[in-house]
Amino acid sequence: MSGSVIYSAIDLTDGFYQILMRESDIPLTAVSTPSGVLWECLVMPQGLKNAPATFNRMVSHVLRPLRAFAPSYFDDIFVHSRAEDGLSAVDVHLRHLRKVFEKMRENKLYANLKKCVFCAPEIPVLGCYVSKSGVRADPEKISSICSWPTPKNQTELRQWLGLANYLHKYTKDYAGLTQPMSSLLKKDVTWNWRPEHQDAFDAVKKSLASAPVLMLPDTSRPFHVVTVSAS
């Protein structure tokens, strides 16, 4: 999505139900009700072990020719465009949307218009927001983390860390900052919230309150990937 300036997010309605069951597999979905009526699913139901992978594979296969500008994740399709070939970004984006809709029509995939966003400068993508500036954290999630009261026990601390961990990439040295609090979650450790724990708690909040916008990598230029090897 790097370099794009206009975006659309398409939500597929009732994703699993858009896949027909193979006729020979329909009896495998049979459910007996208390009234004695036997129900069988004609479309892929919720709850099948391989349903998520099957649906994601189908959508990825359908959109594979368009993946340069229309990546997908399960029931979400993200269309992004920039000006090219003498056309404005809007004109290119409309052309991209038309190609996506044609693929959807060919494969009988239906969108939930209430959840779709079209031709916007920014769209929600998997819990964050993407724009030409980069990737920023969801303000509602940051607000929830920053307004959380001081934990009074391990359960409350674990809940807060679970939420904060989701946005760890926006905090430099997140593991180091949270280490004092993480030590309280070890087995057989007696709960004792001390000043160093409060300092760590406040430091994470402060960092997320001013969370940076993460830049998308420009694959046309050299860039460095920094990794940590941990066992």
From TrEMBL:
A Pfam cross-reference name: RT_RNaseH_2
CDD domains the UniProt entry points to: RT_LTR
SUPFAM superfamilies, per database record: DNA/RNA polymerases
Reverse transcriptase domain ranges (all copies): 1-165
Organism superkingdom: Eukaryota
PROSITE patterns membership: RT_POL
InterPro entries given in the database record: DNA/RNA_pol_sf, Rev_trsase/Diguanyl_cyclase, RT_dom, RT_RNaseH_2, Viral_Replic_Matur_Polypro
Protein name: Reverse transcriptase domain-containing protein
Highest classification ranks of the organism: Eukaryota, Sar, Stramenopiles, Oomycota, Peronosporomycetes
